[in-house]
Amino acid sequence: MTCTKFFTSPLIVLSLLVMACEPNSLDQGLLFKEMSIDQTGVSFVNEVRDQEDFNIFNYRNFYNGGGVAIGDLNNDGWPDIYFTANMAANKLYLNTGNWSFEDITEKAGVQGTRSWSTGVTMADVNGDGWLDIYVCNSGDLEGSNKTNELFINQGDLTFVESAAVFGLDDHGYSTHASFFDFDGDGDLDCYLLNNSFKSIDRVELFTQRRELRDTLGGDKLLRNDNGLFTDISAEAGIYGGAVGFGLGVSVSDLNGDMRPDLYIANDFWERDYLYLNVGDGTFSEEIVSRTDVVSGSSMGADVADLNNDGFPEIFTTEMLPPDNQRLKTMTRFDETNVKELKVRADYHIQVLQNCLHFNDGNGNFQELAALANTEASDWSWGALIFDMDNDGWKDIFVSNGILRDITSMDFASFASDRENIKKIVQKEGKLNVNDLLAYLPSTKISNYAYINQRNRTFINQADSLGLGIPSFSNGSAYADLDNDGDLDLIVNNINAPASIYQNQTDTLFGHAYLKVKFQGPEKNPFGIGARVTVYSGDKRQRLENFTSRGFQSSVEPVVNFGLGSLQRLDSLEVVWPDLKRQTLRDLVVNTVLTLSYPDADDTFRQTEPGAQSLYSEVTQTTLEGNYRHKENDFNDFNHERLLPRKLSTQGPRVIEGDVDGDGKDDFILLGAFGDPDKVFLQESNGRFKQKPQGSLLRDSIFESTCGVLFDLDQDGDLDLLIGSGGNEFNRGLDAHVLRYYDNNGHGVFNRSVERAPRAIGNFSCILAEDFDQDGDQDLFVGGRVIPGNYGLIPRSFLFRNDNGLWTNVEPQSLGGAGMVTDAVWSDFNGDDRKDLIVVGEWLPVSVYLNNGQGLEEAYAIPGTNGWWNRIEAVDLDCDGMDDYVLGNWGLNTKFKASIEKPLTMYVNDFDKNGKSEFILNWYPQVEDQSYPFASKMDITGQIPGIKKKAVTYEQYAGSTYETLFDEQQRAEAASYSVSLLQSAVLWSNDGDYQLEALPLEAQVAPIYAIVADDMDNDGIKDLLLLGNFHGLKPEVGFQSANKGVFLKGEGNRAFTYVTNAQSGITVNGEVRDASLLDIDGQKAILVARNNQEALLFSRAKREAE
Questions:
Q1: Are 765 and 782 a contacting pair, CB within 8 Å?
Q2: Across the strands, what pairs with 16?
Q3: How many other β-carbons are positioned within 10 Å of the β-carbon of residue 49?
Q4: Contacts of residue 729, Cβ cutoff 8 Å, sequence gap at least 6
Q5: Which of 513, 797, 841, 885 yields a CA-CA distance of 20 to 30 A from 181?
Q6: What pTM was estimated for this model as a whole?
Q7: 135-158, pLDDT tens digit by residue?
Q8: Could you read off the pLDDT of 1001-1023 as tens digits, one per residue?
């Protein structure tokens, strides 16, 4: 593509264009109608009452509630309902049609005889064509009255309890079970999910191991051996330890190899388990390598394809409240050191939030719950993924609420005070359960209905859909109870009648559907494990026939496709568990289709890998020594408790240039404190070899945060200037200087103290440019933060080179620009002079125009205040003017920012102790009022005087910045705001500039590295965006979803996302910089990661190029 340059006026007009669809709102009427008891006859109530000798204080799962199972037990075409109860008989309701149900529990003989039922599953255990009922039991802490029960269907609506006959009479603390054919022998095996009753005292965090089997609390895999279930857990690679606190089991083919895998959601500190089916009767547990992060106390879970790419996603629930009051009073986050200890103890990285893991097609997952707006739904149990409105996109239902607020921090403070307990005893004469319960709040919570926006985001519309009634809801299941083609919803509540919701999609929207039933092989009549895919044009949907879903519940063995406005389907493919395949073409909609195993006349074969990827990793063969950046150990939060993230992990940066004068690209990787900067020279064979550097080795006492290569002495080689920095203020001012190194012409650098500009600071960037056009290189040096005093403005510098002497010439606004993270020299207004564009934290994109005499005061582009990390100048659209790619914090974060609801920071020495503090104010997800983000523990630890204004957690939760600080304190405070978190492109536009958000794939994490070039050799510039940030306070989260976002330029300012498999670039970890190199005529990309090895990717050679 040929670029022609022309000049335009400097007028700037700003508009933010966000690449997103219109909200998929369902406000045309109540989608779900709650049916009355009089209409349905379903009067089931799960009554739970604390007793003196059995209560929430001695049985921690006392408020977990019961489950729901749905299935057609008499094969009459109408799905029936089974509820489990905790302190009473379970109930079975026969569906007699027209929303009428009959309680047949007693005559069917399925009420159960155990003390405390939990999960329930309907499955054809004996393969006779009739669904059986398997009930999990728990609760009996000392005795044996918790044996699981199996009710075998006799075909006449009576059942015989036969758990012992089949080997399914487990007497542990069971939560749920899933029946599926894991070994491919045609019959159904069983995964039994148990919940350990071991103490959750923190001492056991490092002494209890998941490999040590626990009979009562450990999970089990039971193989079906001709009708007798045999425990093969150990030999199959299934953990069964006392640290297993199982609350959810999901079965799905997670990695696309056509074998059923397992996802196990574990409560408390134990990590979740992701078991990949090896195919030889064993599983490989790979949660750590397949995910970056999991929910901290996972509750329910479900697995299904949410973005219609054919690969299943994983959704797990947790307990994070979306509102300020419950967040501040109910949620205690780990301290950073505890979080790090858990990681070292192999409990994986955990976050206290719902997690939504998107599948990359290879069984690896990106966690995007915050981006998807699904991270916080309060005390959540069941998660069900199904198409609520039959529009062809699956939605997420979450059941919510716990009978009493057992995590109330005010209650914990009260109960831990011996004087409070003493007063109760003195008043009542003794301490009983009810005395304590009187101090424990009980708050009903609304269920959530996340409606799919068809772009990986969701909107909770529970209230407008008729599902927002506050309750204590636990197990839930969906089924087409009235056979009208849409999925109705059944919810088991504590101390209230079960909820049955009629789905009114057929009358409100008239969306089409296809219901698929199965006539499976002999031992699996209901076709459990069958995979069905429907196609229409270039669109597809996929469902798997697995029934145990959500929390303690199961759905019927039928799959239901919502088809929106489609009138016909091009084709349907079913693949049975043994890979027999059948394809049907030109199908009508709004019907029930029964697929029969004997009709499968083909065999499924895995498709061959697609086209060659653009790049391949060549680190091992090209980069000598496998260089690893070594971050020094420093906990910023020990010194500044109010920081949301670390400031000491900003490296390593990359400096690229030909340092030995041989015409080849070389590079320098900067190091942290104690980790020397390293110079790599490119050899004639295209390999990079480290060049020993005595001067740089001696200077490893510095933390190198930025640098630049330029010919200061004009001797024809590139000299080196490095900025020192870091947030470790205890190392003194001498650790925060600029260091100049003279190049001997062969790539060896020697320090010259006297030639370096005189400046003290924590530097973020150095840029060389002849801005005064006198023939030598001048310098801009950006100041990042003042160590230990976040929020105070560091000094930035503009040095004019006067024959090798440095003169400060920065305008006032540039010297105090703010917390600068990056900058670029570029001709912003087309006058052939290089201007300076600066970005930073809490800053707008700021332009310092070059008037020929110097830089003018800043022009701040309106509406661009962000948490900017990087800026890159490049003419993307070939109009002759630079455009600007801007790396921001992204949208996969609990922090949201807009003009109407900005993030705000107030900085002042609030307590007059001689050290400044800052207050970060935010709008929680569902709030129209902003509040301090910090927890009570952190804000009172930093500013002790606040303890007097907010004695309790409840008082602090109701406090705002305005009520915590008086008028004088507020008047003295400096304030800053952020209204934009999206990464974006600032396009030149005939003299104007237009800000456009990058595609949603680029918003998954903070961006710290931007490569802009024609990376696929089609003549159009592309973008590679990398980043992530791990050093966040536990309450902020964990940013790890960017694996290397490749945006292919299409021309006309359009980009297409290229998958990691297609680009060949997959990067895990915290990227801090990247550079495009030339290796023997081929493009290569160097990626520098914090505390990890550098990576090198080379352009794959192709015959056509």
A1: yes
A2: 995
A3: 11
A4: 639, 787, 788, 789
A5: 513
A6: 0.95
A7: 999 988 777 789 999 999 999 999
A8: 999 999 999 999 999 999 999 99
